[in-house]
Design a protein that fits this description.
Length: 393
């Protein structure tokens, strides 16, 4: 079996590695001339690290990651703090695997290295996929300026603007959520001591929230700030904003946030779009994974983790059932889980940005009510406990 993969992001490379380790040949086509992720962080909960350990790269990644001791909720104005959940050893105790926070380029590097160890020439760079045709026995992928390649199946792992999705399902109709995400990283030594802690914090406020967590063994702090704002509509990892604009968006927030914002050299901004969950994303020998299949708001920190789970389950399904049947089993195994994650992420927006948070007294009551240990467990346990290695397919 020879599988073509469009896109060498987190999802495409995980799928490539999982397939190669199942003895299935792959070729990965990536539009970028070099493999590089944006310089931001990504949180990998136990359901993701479980897969990365199964693929043999857990320890390599651990050496570059941070294992935050826990996560907390903070009030945007008073700074009052509530526990969300314990991580560090508690993640391993409860779920068997750690919760890593990772610098994206490090994750991509570890994945690419592992793919190349298994097949040195598997990744083709500067290869933009333009579309495909398929017949009874094969699929032909068109590459811009590079002719065509043929394989037994094609996986569209080409992200939120997926060409492969548009070829399967027609034009894309994303809906703007009225929110944008600010991103940045700060060397830890620029932050005051009381902020340079090994925990993940989620500041919630009326119309916006901010998440920050440590990366690279605590040398760097990652910043993601989401804000309701309707004047920016570009979904891009690389669009830059200014510190002044970012500071003005968070005027009135706690002094710690002001200090953090002033320490960010280059803030980036991304318009958050939603796409309705798909019922089907497979067409015979062609399927999708990761953001191409089910992009989601980043409010459960699970988009990349879903792409990782997808890649692993897909490899199992192809190894077990062959191409056409395998792709159907993969899609069926992933439909409900990814839909629930898309919906759960969207539901967090109303929680994180609730107007009740504007008033300190009412806001405290709201947080006490929304973040009880039972409600936290309801929102996260089913995510973290999923085992892509054993889930029925
Ligand atoms: C602000 C923010 C914070 C987030 N935080 C988290 C988090 O903490 N945890 C988490 O799990 N998720 C998080 N996510 C979600 C996560 O980033 C995505 O879900 C994840 O990157 C999806 O991976 P992917 O491989 O499907 O797509 P991508 O990472 O987008 O990769 C797609 C790849 O395909 C390539 N490509 C695109 N078009 C073509 C083409 N035509 N031909 C060839 N190659 C092509 C691209 O260059 C890219 O390399 C966050 C998202 C945002 C916006």
């Amino acid at each position: 079996m020879r599988i073509l993969i469009a896109g060498a992001g987190i999802g495409g490379l995980t799928a490539a590695l999982a397939l190669l380790r199942s003895g299935i040949d792959v070729e990965v086509y990536e539009q970028a001339p070099e493999l590089k992720e944006v310089g931001a962080g990504v949180q990998l909960a136990a359901n993701g690290t479980r897969v990365l350990y199964a693929l043999g790269i857990g320890d390599e990644l651990k050496a570059l990651s941070c294992e935050a001791q826990g996560k907390e909720i903070r009030h945007w104005q008073t700074g009052e703090t509530w526990k969300l959940f314990d991580l560090g050893p508690a993640s391993i105790e409860r779920y068997g695997f750690p919760y890593f926070t990772v610098y994206r380029p490090d994750l991509l590097e570890v994945l690419a290295r592992a793919v190349r160890r298994a097949k040195p020439d598997a990744i083709h760079l500067g290869a933009r996929c333009a579309g495909f045709t398929q017949g009874d026995a094969s699929v032909t992928l068109q590459l811009e300026n590079r002719g065509t390649v043929r394989g037994d199946a094609l996986i569209g792992a080409d992200g939120v603007h997926s060409r492969i999705r548009q070829t399967v399902l027609g034009p894309d109709r994303p809906e703007f959520t009225g929110t944008i995400a600010w991103r940045g990283v700060v060397p830890m030594e620029r932050l005051p001591k009381h902020m340079a802690r090994m925990v993940g914090s989620n500041w919630v406020g009326p119309g916006g929230h901010i998440v920050h967590y440590p990366l690279r063994a605590g040398k760097v702090m990652n910043f993601v700030g989401v804000l309701e704002r309707s004047d920016w509509r570009i979904e891009s990892w690389t669009a830059r904003g200014t510190t002044e604009e970012l500071a003005s968006d968070y005027r009135g927030w706690h002094e710690d946030i002001q200090v953090f914002i002033r320490a960010i050299d280059t803030p980036y901004k991304w318009a958050l779009m939603v796409r309705a969950p798909l019922e089907r994303w497979t067409s015979r020998r062609v399927t999708l994974l990761g953001d191409a299949a089910h992009s989601m708001l980043p409010f459960l920190a699970q988009g990349a983790v879903m792409a990782i789970e997808d890649g692993f389950v897909l490899a199992r399904a192809l190894a077990q059932y062959g191409v056409e049947e395998g792709l159907q089993h993969y899609e069926a195994a992933r439909r409900d889980r990814t839909r629930r994650t898309v919906e759960g992420s969207a539901a967090n927006m109303h929680r994180f940005h609730n107007r009740a948070l504007a008033d300190p007294v009412e806001g405290k009551r709201f947080i006490d009510r929304e973040w009880t240990s039972q409600r936290i467990a309801d929102r996260y346990e089913w995510l973290f406990r999923y085992d892509a290695q054993t889930v029925p397919i």
